[in-house]
């Protein structure tokens, strides 16, 4: 499973949140959110679900198609 970090970033900015704000909503540090968005680290399934809920999408909606 590959998470689409660019999609997380786009949805986060569309909500007007910075990385710290998204991190606070999902129980992760700002630096970790940045790692997810850059594709350096994959979020755990628990964090993926929390991120999806916070951003108003399904977890599947954050997974890359390729």
TrEMBL record:
Name of one Pfam family that matches: HTH_3
Keyword hit for DNA-binding: yes
Limits of the HTH cro/C1-type domain: 8-62
InterPro entries according to UniProt: Cro/C1-type_HTH (IPR001387), Lambda_DNA-bd_dom_sf (IPR010982)
Keywords: DNA-binding
Signal sequence segment: none
Gene Ontology molecular functions: DNA binding
Protein name: DNA-binding XRE family transcriptional regulator
């Amino acid at each position: 499973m590959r998470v689409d970090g660019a999609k997380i970033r786009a949805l986060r900015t569309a909500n007007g949140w910075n990385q710290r704000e998204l991190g606070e909503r999902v129980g992760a540090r700002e630096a970790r959110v940045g790692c997810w968005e850059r594709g350096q680290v994959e979020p755990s399934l628990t964090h993926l679900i929390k991120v999806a809920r916070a951003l108003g999408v399904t977890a599947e909606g954050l997974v890359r198609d390729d």
